[in-house]
Write a structure and sequence with these properties.
Order of helices and strands: H
Distance between the termini: 50 Å
Structural class: mainly alpha
Radius of gyration: 18 Å
Strand content: under 5%
Number of helices: 1
C-alpha cells in the first residue's frame, strides 16, 4: 500500500470515528449530567 493510500485510509477512519463520537455525544452528556445531579453521587469531589 502506498503512503498516499495509507494516509487516505487513516483520514477516513478518523473522520468516521469523529462522526460516531458526535452521534454519541448527546447521550453521553445526558448520562454525565444525571450522574452528577446527586443521582447516587458515586463521584467524590
Amino acid at each position: 500500500m502506498s503512503d498516499a493510500a495509507l494516509r487516505r485510509n487513516i483520514t477516513e477512519l478518523v473522520q468516521e470515528l469523529l462522526h460516531n463520537l458526535q452521534a454519541q455525544l448527546p447521550a453521553l452528556i445526558e448520562l454525565w449530567k444525571s450522574e452528577n445531579q446527586g443521582g447516587g453521587g458515586r463521584l467524590k469531589t
